[in-house]
């Protein structure tokens, strides 16, 4: 009872501490009305202020999929009962993250440095999930979202930022906005069916085992690509950008984490292949997309094999590739302008409109080790020649961790995890920052380069009827790739409500 009262007090403090939090609390009230299918555990992800931080595992459950294993955890308990056999969805969530850090060592700081002085910040993301199943093969899904609060140093200074829910552009409107809006069509290629888990991405009770799924509209790329049952969900799992996503995957998105496009996903018994074509933003970290797909566009490909690496243990292997075409600067050209004394500091945006290409690859592994234990690893790489544009300033990354389900200690709604990630940038990107250049996230005015290494741990406890409390901590060495700054310790407290 004491723990429940403490949690309620903390949530009230987060919601009511400022006038706009009162509006957020008022917005949360309609979310408590639930008419449709339940939202899944969503091991299932924002690169910025949005609920795109939350994705679902592939729709087809399979004995070889870690998301269907005991280690993935039980469906989250909700505040109000859900009706799984309804063709309608009306549900919601609210996620509050409080973070702070003490003073830390810094030989110098620049305009895009993480503040070396004590700082604190609270972010929020609130989502209303709606949908309707039109027939046995077509559905319409629409999510309304509200995001706000603040970020540590307004989101600057870290490639692997500590909170995936933050608003990276504080000038964005606090009004609710359309998060997702898509049509989902399923084409059957077999008569046998598999059970489908209801989620904000699909309301079907069952699906053909062999099928082609087409989605068109507004969505987030991590809804369907690079998903992971252990590290992809800021509501219940890790919070760091480069832990929940492949940091070197500069996926097409506006500053809230969404894009417009089409996704084609072919699923068979033990494997799947998906492709997406989507729009890119006008400028790095921009809110406006370019509506000229014949010029500015992004392609993503992913092959998924649902087979474990260890004998008689379930697992998944995902192979990702992407290409982006947009008005991106080239780091080497920006440095050359500086060396030729054409500019006082290198500026990656100092170029006429031109289309350049960025590409990269990723590997995403999951492996069940024992009941209630799942390990995972990610590796990512991009060419590093062109400007970091839509996600974060990472050109290479390696990430590994483990997730544990609370059923092991008789609390099936609880979960815990530990992860390590090491991020890096290519030589051209290093020289750009070392000479005083600014990226949309980084820029200390100089650079003594070292890989940005991060440790993160969390424990998510179910307190009462859809209310969850999650303390955690992150330790960052060489923030912003700079050995002259840090290390930084960031304690975290997350409050989450499933309506």
Concise description?
Helix content is 9%, strand content 37%. It has 5 helices and 18 strands. The strands form 2 sheets. Strands 1-2-3-4-7-8-9-10-11-12-13-14-15-16-17-18 form a 16-stranded antiparallel barrel. Strands 5-6 form a two-stranded antiparallel ribbon.
Low-confidence stretches: 1-71
What is the fourth-level CATH superfamily?
Carbohydrate-selective porin OprB
N-to-C span: 21 Å
* Helix content range: under 10%
Structural class: mainly beta
Task: Give the percentage of residues in beta strands.
Answer: 35-45%
Radius of gyration over alpha carbons?
22 Å
Major pleated sheet: 16 strands, antiparallel, barrel
Tell me what the structure shows:
By secondary structure, the chain is mainly β. The protein has a single domain (2-498), classed as Porin, CATH 2.40.160. The chain is built from five helices and 18 strands. The strands form two sheets. It has a 16-stranded antiparallel barrel.
Task: Spell out the blueprint of helices and strands.
Elements: H1 2-16, H2 19-28, E1 88-101, E2 119-133, E3 138-149, E4 177-188, E5 193-195, E6 206-208, E7 211-219, H3 241-244, E8 259-267, E9 271-278, E10 297-305, E11 315-326, H4 331-339, E12 356-370, E13 373-382, E14 396-405, E15 415-424, H5 427-434, E16 452-464, E17 467-477, E18 488-498
């Amino acid at each position: 009872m004491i723990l429940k009262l403490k949690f309620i007090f903390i949530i009230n403090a987060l919601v009511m501490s400022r006038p706009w939090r009162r509006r957020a609390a008022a917005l949360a009230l309609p979310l408590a009305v639930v008419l449709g299918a339940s939202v899944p555990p969503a091991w299932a992800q924002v690169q910025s202020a949005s609920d795109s931080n939350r994705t679902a595992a592939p729709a087809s459950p399979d004995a070889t999929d870690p998301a269907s294993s005991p280690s993935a955890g039980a469906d989250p308990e909700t505040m109000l009962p859900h009706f799984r056999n309804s063709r309608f969805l009306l549900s919601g969530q609210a996620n509050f993250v409080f973070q702070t850090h003490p003073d830390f060592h810094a030989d110098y700081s620049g305009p895009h440095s993480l503040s070396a002085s004590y700082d604190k910040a609270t972010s929020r993301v609130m989502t209303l999930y709606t949908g309707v199943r039109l027939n046995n093969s077509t559905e319409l899904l629409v999510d309304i979202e509200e995001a706000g609060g603040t970020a540590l140093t307004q989101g600057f200074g870290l490639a692997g930022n500590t909170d995936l829910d933050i608003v990276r552009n504080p000038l964005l409107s606090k009004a609710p906005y359309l998060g997702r809006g898509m049509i989902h069509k399923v084409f059957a290629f077999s008569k046998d069916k598999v059970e489908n888990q209801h989620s904000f991405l699909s309301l079907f009770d069952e699906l053909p085992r062999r099928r082609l799924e087409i989605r068109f509209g507004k969505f987030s790329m991590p809804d369907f690509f690079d998903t992971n049952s252990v590290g992809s969900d800021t509501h219940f799992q890790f919070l760091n950008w480069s832990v929940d996503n492949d940091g070197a995957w500069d996926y097409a998105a506006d500053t809230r984490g969404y894009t417009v496009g089409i996704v084609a996903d072919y699923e068979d018994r033990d494997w799947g292949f998906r492709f997406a074509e989507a729009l890119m933003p006008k400028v790095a970290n921009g809110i406006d997309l370019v509506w000229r797909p014949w010029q500015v566009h992004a392609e993503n490909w992913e092959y998924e094999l649902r087979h474990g690496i260890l004998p008689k243990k379930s697992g998944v292997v995902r192979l990702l590739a992407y290409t982006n075409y947009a008005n991106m600067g080239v780091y080497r050209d920006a440095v050359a302008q500086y060396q030729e004394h054409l500019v006082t500091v290198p500026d990656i945006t100092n170029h006429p409109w031109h289309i350049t290409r960025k590409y990269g690859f990723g590997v995403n592994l999951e492996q069940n080790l024992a009941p209630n234990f799942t390990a995972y690893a990610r590796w990512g790489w991009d060419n590093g020649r062109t400007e970091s544009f839509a996600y974060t300033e990472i050109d290479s990354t390696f990430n590994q961790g483990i997730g544990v389900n609370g059923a092991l200690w008789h609390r099936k709604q609880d979960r815990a995890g530990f992860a390590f990630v090491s991020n890096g940038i290519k030589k051209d990107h290093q020289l750009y920052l070392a000479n005083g250049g600014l990226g949309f996230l980084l820029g200390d005015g100089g650079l003594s380069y070292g890989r940005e290494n991060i440790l993160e741990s969390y424990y998510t406890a179910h307190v009462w009827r859809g209310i969850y409390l999650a303390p955690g901590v992150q330790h960052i060495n060489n923030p912003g790739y700079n050995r002259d700054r840090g290390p930084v310790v960031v304690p975290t407290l997350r409050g989450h409500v499933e309506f």
